[in-house]
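This follows on from our talk about sequence and fold. Can you supply me with one protein entry, sequence and fold together? Could you add the entry underneath, on a fresh line?
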Amino acid sequence: MLITCILLYLAVSIAIGLYAATRVKGAADFAVAGRRFGTPVVMATVFATWFGAETVLGIPATFWKDGLRGLVADPFAAVGCLVLVGVLFARPFHRMNLITLGDYFRGRFGRPTEVVLSLCIAFSYLGWIAAQFVALGLAFNVLSGGAIDTRTGIVIGAAAVLVYTMAGGMWSVALTDFFQAVVIVLGMLYVAWMVSDHAGGAGRVFDALAASERMRVLPDPDAKSILAWISAALIVLFGSIPQQDVLQRVMSAKDEGVAVRGSILGGLLYFAIASVPIFLIGAAALIDPALVERLVKDDPQLILPTLILERTPIAVQVLFFGALLSAILSTAGGALLAPAVVIAENLVRPWMQRRAGAIDPWTEALGDARQLRVMRGTVFVLGLAVLAMALTSKLSIYQLVNESGKVVLVSAFVPLAAGIFWRRATRQGAHASIGAGLAAWIALEALAPDAVVPPVLCGLAASTLGMVLGSVLPQVGPPPKPVIPV
């Protein structure tokens, strides 16, 4: 019964995605859905894209091992990022009428900046997408009672995501996100209500959590712990801002006000629903402490799925796993589309146009229909590459997600923020920022990964210093044409 319901749910999700594909009329529709969505859809797609496998499986596992201080990156910094995007970045993004962040970097700082940062942004998504594929494999393994091994489950889940993402791009992602957001919210709230009864009431769960050391948010009072805590927060808080999925959701809004409200409300909704898995694992410790103790040693990511399967009725199981699959599918689709669009628009398209002999590589020489085919082909190739990564990775879901933002933090955040908010930022400053940030981070990751000051913080500081010095010192070469307004 459970497997049948889940398969029907997958079929409905794919059907919605394929229906949405009928709305795609060109590459812009595929990438940003033609800037047509209102606040409910933008809010839902922001929430659903961020509420992924790491939220349902990774957050409770990390909380049980490290407490709230282990969750500084997600959900705390994640919510801060979405609110910050709404307050500071949504309006400038929407006014630029861009398809990708690479378009912005090219117009503001030139083609070399576009190429390097497009590669960095695309690379940063690999761990995030792989985490969703791994979670799909775990879900199918648990649901089938081991009949479907995790690796086979990863392949099945990846195939489902590829089908509707390739078909409809942002239209498919947005409409399936809206449907899946409803399932996530209703499913998680109902599951929490039912599980709290098994634990003796919500009050008993809250009291048990409050009495434990796990509710401490701040790190230990030593320099290394404090800096590691700050580093984990900044990787998500700032490193997630120069990301293509953030830009796509802002650009899919029909006006600036919708872009702002959608980002902020989506972030607040994410924080509210992300607290439910924390509550559930607290309840699990009261319902079956032996199960929790055993799985903490084996794989803490399986605590909630195993508890739901073994100790709750079929209706709760359907809603929990429906919400879990909704979370994974919505995040996987959005995360796969974002780097594929960047690669197709900022790397593949210019190369193909130069081969075609276009005088201006930014003309429509190849035609919109051909560019749409390029985007779909890039989704397919990237999906296969990440599938291989998911099948071989040994990292946890939470680690895969929260490690992925480092390269963007040290390379792209400072050029993006300075380019928008500092008029004196120059092409030379951007080049110095990118080079210094990446060089410092890579060198320290190789030479002193466990130093008191985390390598990523040094990389961010070097990136900031490079931008300032590169912009205020005498400029080498002619100034760039002001394509993007400063």
The domain at 2-404 is CATH 1.20.1730.10 (Sodium/glucose cotransporter).
